[in-house]
Design a protein that fits this description.
Oligomer: single chain
Largest sheet: 6 strands, parallel
CATH class of the largest domain: Alpha Beta
Number of strands: 16
Strand content: 15-25%
Structural class: alpha/beta
Number of domains: 2
Radius of gyration: 22 Å
């Protein structure tokens, strides 16, 4: 089988992926191997029935929970994975993230009863190429698979909102940057610069920080001639407590993807609506990851950064994260530090 080499450049790192050329849809020479992940038998039966119309699409395995899906994806490396979201043991969103690590060439199409725009964004941010609302599965599942193998993205007509509509010129690249700060003066200077630039350009800003930092930011922004009070009234500046907002998304010591996206997506959409720029964006400045770092919950901090990367793929947002400098006392801490840096497009240590 021929192979395609794709070079991805991220910051100062270059990664070369080598992946096999995928078969054309409808090819009788190379069948498309399919893994079905669904915990309800009736839906598995429906998928089998629909796929009988396309005998070249071969279901090679059926599983009913997220953990088994990850295991089978790693073993079988299927061409296509049909994945439910509400799975036992491990939800479909998290399963998709793990599958992308184990079988990056597998194309993922979600088949779900949830048709909310926030969930669609989470699913596509997790690496899926298609999203089919179960109520429309009979007429849309086969077209969805065909579209995905043509290299297109498919979102069911049964989802809420207008996901695929983008205004011209609105696709500027997003940034996800990290600041390791030595003292509060550095923190305030960096956050003020980012927020002031956004508000003066007619964009929005969201701050997730401690009360002392949020209070100080208001003063430093006013010193930069930013009309903070007006921005708050218009809805272009939102300031929330980092610890309180963090508590709403944590489940068993880790950030829950659905809770994360449901919370932050609503804030971003409201801020974008209030912004005056022609193609508005939002500066999202936060230190929730810094709180997790200070607590020693390094895995949760990295996980939150990964969710931030997913967010930047689906929202018009530029993210600046902040960590207090220090705390690296062992080789393990150094490895965590490197993992955090690797999740960002730029790293600043001041």
């Amino acid at each position: 089988m021929s192979r395609i080499h794709t070079t991805l450049r991220h910051s100062n790192r270059t990664v070369v992926w080598c992946h096999p050329t995928l078969p054309e849809v409808g090819s009788l020479l190379t069948p498309i191997r399919v893994l079905v992940v669904e915990d309800h038998r009736d839906w598995r039966n429906l998928v089998r029935l629909l796929f009988q119309m396309r005998p070249e699409w071969q279901i090679i395995s059926e599983v009913s929970d997220g953990l088994e899906a990850v295991q089978m994806a790693g073993e079988l490396k299927p061409d296509l994975i049909l994945l439910d979201i509400g799975l036992p043991k491990l939800d479909g969103i998290e399963a998709a993230r793990r599958i992308r690590q184990l079988s990056p060439n597998s194309k993922i199409v979600f088949l779900s009863m949830d048709n909310s725009l926030d969930v669609v964004r989470v699913a596509l941010g997790a690496g899926a190429r298609g999203y089919v609302y179960k109520a429309h599965a009979r007429k849309e599942l086969l077209p969805a698979v065909e579209a995905v193998f043509r290299g297109e993205r498919f979102v069911s007509s049964g989802t809420e909102g207008d996901w695929l509509t983008e205004p011209p010129g609105a696709n500027a690249p997003c940034h996800h940057e990290v600041l390791f700060y030595s003292d509060d003066a550095v923190f305030l200077e960096s956050f003020t610069r980012s927020i002031a630039a956004a508000l003066k350009a007619g964009n929005g800003a969201i701050v997730l920080a401690t009360k002392s930092h949020r209070d100080s930011l208001v003063q430093t922004l006013k010193a930069e001639c930013v009309d903070v009070d007006g921005a708050i009234q218009q809805g272009t500046y939102i300031s929330l407590d980092a610890a309180t907002s963090l508590s709403t998304i944590m489940v068993n010591g880790l950030p829950n993807p659905l809770r994360y996206f449901e919370g932050v997506s609503g804030l971003i959409e409201a801020t974008l609506k209030a912004a005056k720029a022609e193609h508005p964006r939002v500066a999202l400045c936060g230190e929730r990851v810094g709180l997790l770092w200070a607590e020693g919950n390094m895995i949760a901090a990295i996980r939150l950064e990964q969710l931030g990367n997913d967010l930047a793929k689906t929202q018009k947002v530029d993210i600046l994260c902040a960590y207090p400098l220090g705390g690296i006392q062992s080789r393990e801490d150094e490895l965590v530090f490197q993992c955090i840096c690797a999740e960002h497009s730029a790293v600043y240590s001041l």
